[in-house]
User: What shape does this take?
Amino acid sequence: MKRPAEAIDKILTGLRNAEAPLGMPDRILQAVELRALVPHTSGSRLWNMLSRPAPTGLVRTWPPGWSLALAGFLGVSLAITAVHRYGQRATPQSKLVPIQAGWPQRASARADAQVAFALPPDSMAPAGNKKVVRTIRQTAAAQSVLPSEMSVPSHPAPEAPLTREEILLLRIVHKGDPQELAMLNPDIRAKQEAEGEAEFLKFAEESYQGDHE
Amino acid sequence: MASIEGYGLALLSIEGTQPEIELAALVETYSSLLFRVAHSVLRSRTEAEDVVQDVFVRVIEHRGTLYEVRDMRVWLIRIAWNLAIDRKRHILPDQLDERFAESLAASSESADKALEETQRLKSVLREMERLPRRERQVLLLSTVEELGTSELAIILGRSESAVRALLFRARTRLRERLQGRGGKR
Assistant: This one.
């Protein structure tokens, strides 16, 4: 090659003068902020492959057919997630089933405790059984997720219609009649009924004695 | 530099006890440098930008232990360097090199000359890839102007004198090989 030093310098100068594309910091911040909001569940390699635009023919391990299939799958799963989240947000808070946030953790903690109780500690297990013990623990841990997932309400329970008694109660409450309200107390009601019965008996006795006289 | 207002991702190392590290400030300060580091390995602007993005994703992932990082600059460069090398294993370097060589040769006068120049630069890049690993790494990292010999030594885990020797040997070997190729023709 003629003038190799010049060619080397040209390459090195080209690398040295490489400048970041316009707007790169903004794009990076947007992407990183998005990643910070979305929980990181899959491997970073998969994310990289999915998130970056694959130039045709450049990627060795990424056939174009797979890209389309994966893009479709990703789109469908994102749509399902979005619909699910929208449904949860659109529900008024007062209608949510009041299962506390700690409930699933308690269930899973209980399951863990049961597993820990059922299995011997690692230090007690023979060396050959450690792998088995670990496998059982992993399986038990995976199974303990199921009840916790089942206990979480996927949909809030629909509001049941009022019974006849409840409707009557509401009417009384909204009318605000103190006598009727007092009658809702079973003790007062029983006392009043006893008084009424006593008055009636008294009246009946008096009228009976008056007739005979 | 593009405006980065509106982004306030604060990376709390330990709540209340450690100072906050602002992601926007990190991106503004280091993204260009990291881009050049990644570009020296990948020779592709889009790929290098992806690597820079991945670096800051790592920053988010390690926000709990950031206070342990002594030298943020070297730490970020190391991540970018390793991610770029890792990414290069999954792409076809010849096609990236061809584009890079074309972009460098584009200023040539005629199409014939540009084509000839592209081929010449591609052969240089090919020979660079055939250099011994340490020599190649030092040669590529030395193209990042912001990095001095001492930082190169820290990033590559070598002494400063070893870095100088490797750089000298890389240049000499590359020149000799290219001259040898010309002689054989």
User: Anything to note?
Assistant: Confidence is low (pLDDT under 50) at residues 1-8, 12-19 of chain B. The radius of gyration of chain B is 19 Å.
